[in-house]
Design a protein that fits this description.
The chain is mainly β and 436 residues long. 14% of the residues lie in helices and 35% in strands. It has a 6-stranded mixed β-sheet with strand order 25-24-3-2-1-26, with no helix packed on it. Among the domains are: 47 residues, no CATH class; 242 residues, Neuraminidase (6 Propeller). It comes from Lolium multiflorum (Italian ryegrass).
Length: 436
């Protein structure tokens, strides 16, 4: 026989309904917040201690990053542009690696969806002016999960352009070759610990008589820690030594927890035909071979290696077919290369993003870069549309405060262009994300 609920039962039922409603509301707010721009989230952190605690929680940071990366994969329209400006404008391209560069670093946001070849613009999101002479030469930037690494001839710097944070990594005394070039370095996430690490080669001797296994060593810096007590972060040398020296003044390509570098084959009797691979999980080395059916006449300096859509990509212009070939592999340790794109272009280009069928752009395509030029290769017409070629040196660069009318950069050695996913990942304190 059914009996009416008592007053006590009604209170319990009302309490449960409120809890359920509160849980649904919290989940809804959470889903909204992780989709907001990082700039807005940084402002919200100042509203209250409760909001600051929510947005500083590792689980929230990881969720926001996952949402940002997914959005960029499905709609690769967000890019960072950093002009590397020469202090001595009259020098050749070969001298860029050793010439002093400006210590005034700018990060501009460029939205591919808002392109207009006649009046394309970018917006300054982060600027850091270091003291004059703090560093000389710089190398190309590296990007991982919203963090950006700037290797220089003195120190290495890690930025989070979205939050405005910057970390100058401590000096190391291991490098004995005091030259004016930036050391080969890379930035990657160690998925086994959830921590970001910078790996950097160093030279063991003041003079190099022969490039061999003893030429270089490897050191690692863990962001937000390093020592056993996490209170004394510092560079530490790896137990395993690099089996081959690598080319100087290069920035490593990160893919699936590994960094990949071009090998210096100078004076090597039988150098491997591939990339030197460094695992951040167990800090060991290996070689990732190039495609076995790649033309033997292709030199390493003609190959571009990078991450593309989460996979390792190698591209070069075939000397026989005079076409750009783009090879892809998902596995960097045991690569099964496949030629994904054959593009009717003879110029040395590098792929920046697979655009898919973005509604704003129409048909499928791939974003390519040649020097300062960015353009979309349209697979429907098998060519490049003239109205979709952008010259980064002619883009209008806006600063939100000091430069409201915009300007064009001059004396630029090169523009760093990065497919960018903004994040809240901190770089100035220990961070152990709760993996989703």
């Amino acid at each position: 026989m059914f009996s009416a609920p008592t007053m006590g039962m009604k209170k319990i039922m009302r309490s449960k309904r409120k809890q359920q409603q509160g849980t649904i509301l919290d989940e809804l707010v959470f889903e909204i917040l992780i989709r907001l721009p990082v700039k807005s989230l940084v402002r919200f952190k100042a509203v209250s201690k409760a909001w600051q605690a929510i947005m500083s929680d590792p689980f929230f940071i990881r969720a926001q990053l996952g949402c940002s990366k997914q959005r960029q994969r499905h709609d690769p329209s967000s890019f960072l542009i950093t002009p590397q400006v020469l202090l001595e404008p009259d020098c050749t391209a070969e001298e860029h690696a050793v010439k002093a560069m400006s210590t005034d670093i700018h990060f501009y946001r460029w939205n591919l969806r808002e392109f207009d070849c006649s009046s394309s613009t970018t917006t300054l999101i982060c600027r850091r002016r270091f003291p004059d002479g703090e560093f000389g030469a710089v190398s190309h930037l590296a990007h991982c999960d919203g963090l950006v690494l700037l290797p220089t001839s003195t120190k290495a710097y890690v930025f989070n352009p979205a939050t405005g944070d910057v970390l100058a990594l401590p000096a190391s005394q291991r490098n004995m070759l005091r030259n004016v070039m930036a050391l080969p370095a890379g930035l990657v996430l160690d998925a086994s610990t959830g921590r970001y690490k910078v790996a950097r080669f160093f030279f063991r001797a003041r003079k190099i008589k022969r490039w061999d296994i003893d030429t270089m060593g490897m050191e690692v810096f863990t962001i937000g820690g390093g020592g056993e007590d996490d209170k004394d972060p510092s560079w530490r040398e790896t137990l395993v030594h690099p089996p081959y020296p690598v080319q100087s003044a290069q920035t490593g390509t990160h893919c699936k927890g590994h960094l990949l570098f071009f090998i210096n084959k100078h004076h090597q009797e039988q150098p491997p035909n591939g990339l030197l691979r460094f695992s951040l999980q167990d800090e060991t080395f290996g070689v990732t071979p190039f495609p076995s059916n790649m033309e033997s006449a292709v030199d390493d300096e003609d190959i571009f290696a990078q991450e593309l859509d989460g996979e390792l990509c190698c591209s070069y212009v075939s000397k026989s077919s005079q076409r750009l070939l783009i090879w892809i592999t998902r596995d960097v340790q045991d690569p099964q290369w496949g030629c994904r794109y054959v593009i009717d272009l003879r110029d040395d280009c590098r792929p920046m993003a697979s655009l898919g069928s973005m509604a704003a752009l129409g048909s499928d395509g791939i974003l390519l870069r040649r020097g300062n030029f960015i353009f979309r290769y349209d697979f429907e017409v098998n060519g490049v549309r003239e109205d979709e070629i952008f010259d980064m040196s002619r883009l209008i660069y806006f600063g939100p405060i000091e430069d409201t009318v915009g300007h064009v950069w001059k004396n630029v050695a090169w523009f760093d262009l990065i497919s960018y996913s903004e994040s809240l990942v901190p770089i100035t304190r220990a961070y152990r994300p709760k993996m989703l």
